[in-house]
Amino acid sequence: MSEQNPQRPVLRIVRGDPDDVEIAAVTAALAGAAAAQVPEDGPEPMSLWGDPVAAVRHPAGRRPLRPGPHAWRASALPG
């Protein structure tokens, strides 16, 4: 620290008489909380199974059935 521009301490003990181990534990907890990464991307995109817009996309509330070979496979796929 310089004499002209003194910095305030980051951690100050206001009450009590903690020993070095207690101060180290508090410092480690605060450093860990500060280093924790918070996702800032927003919520995960909703799958087509849970998307309420997919239910009203067609007049009947779902995709119309198309009979034919392999129709069972298409009946369970979203979209």
Q: Would you summarize the structure shown here?
A:
The chain has 79 residues and is mainly α. The protein has helices spanning 20-35, 52-55, 71-75.
Structure commentary:
The chain has 79 residues and is an all-alpha fold. The chain has three helices and no strands. The longest helix has 16 residues, at 20-35. The radius of gyration is 29 Å and the shape is rod-shaped. The mean pLDDT is 76.
Attribute tags:
mainly alpha; rod-shaped; 79 residues; 3 helices; single chain; 0% strand
Radius of gyration: 29 Å
* Poorly predicted regions: none
Helical stretch tally: 3
End-to-end Cα distance, whole Å, is 63 Å
Q: Largest sheet, described in full? A: none
What level of helicity do the residues show? 25-40%
Question: What structural class should be given to the helix and strand makeup?
Answer: mainly alpha
Order of helices and strands: HHH
What would the average pLDDT be, to the nearest integer? 76
Pfam families: ACC_epsilon
Region (Disordered): 60-79
InterPro entries: ACC_epsilon
Protein name: Acyl-CoA carboxylase subunit epsilon
